[in-house]
Amino acid sequence: MQRMPIYSLRGPFGLLVVDALGPLPTTNRGNKYILVFADYFTRWVEAFPVADLKTSTFSRVLIDEVLCRFGIPDKLLSDRGSNFVSELATTMYTTLGIHKLAFAPYHPQGQGLVEQFNYTIVQMMKIYVNDHHTDWDTYLPRLLFAYRTAHHETLGDSPYFCLFGRDPTLPLDLAFLDSDPAWKSDDLPQYKRRLASSWKEMRRLVENQMISGQNKSAAAKSDQKPISFDDQSAVWVYKYFSKSNNPDDKRTPKLATHWHGPYRIDRKMGPNTYKIDIPTHPDKIVTVNVDRLKPFKGYYSRPFNEEVPEDESPLKYITT
Description:
- GO terms for molecular function: nucleic acid binding.
- This is Integrase catalytic domain-containing protein.
- The chain is α+β, with helices and mostly antiparallel strands.
- It has helices at about 55-70, 80-85, 85-95, 110-130, 135-150, 160-165, 190-220; strands at about 15-20, 35-40, 45-50, 75-80, 100, 235-240, 260-270, 275, 285-290, 295.
- Among the domains are: about 15-140, Nucleotidyltransferase, domain 5 (2-Layer Sandwich), CATH 3.30.420.10; about 235-315, Roll (SH3 type barrels).
- The chain contains seven helices and ten strands.
- Strands 3-2-1-4-5 form a five-stranded mixed beta sheet, with helices on both faces. Strands 9-8-7-6-10 form a five-stranded antiparallel beta sheet, with no helix packed on it.
């Protein structure tokens, strides 16, 4: 599998990756999409709820919210969406001296950084959104902070530390901070010297971690063993999102919970399929592909969600 290349970068915000997430349910503030900007070097991510994906909206957010805070990147990488490659956008890149790059069509490996963030932030939003999925933009700033301050294996540290050279003060830290800190205003020159002297070393470590992380990921995928389940083991079942005909149903598949159960494995039906017991429908045989199963770890009593998973019996796919 082709991996995303390690670009030659001058440091933070040398390469900016941009993507759009949505459409999501329209919030009370009128937002329907998320514009995502990710620094390829430090993995620092900015995400902004917006009402549309017009080039004018993208340009405004890029200039006012990103470039005015972090400076102009050498390169900007995106897909070939019209809002990113329009004549207006191209003129903006030329004026600002940004070298525009584009992903190869249908090549998600090249977009791995933002795809990983999009997946992570959606999983986090699922925990907090209301039943109608219409308040997701309320939680976005706090979820972003959690993402930026979390340890990233690829970096060997958090995006926050890699960008600012220090860890943020968290609420728990306030209980243990010295009320008379040793840091004084006249220590600023010394702090600047320390930061400058450590920057080259931090950059080297980040680049090495990025390469090491990609190598480990590729090795893990190549050595991956087939997944199998024992009879009577408890599992989660992935259920495809289906929307009701009710016009008041504003749910979206991006914010819906897809893993249902736990269910009990009855027996193995084929090389990659299993029969699942449905307590509420004991006479029904439901066959599920192993790709839609994952182990349930914990005490099993009865399914938390009693909906019947989709049947994937081989008979369903026989054609003449």
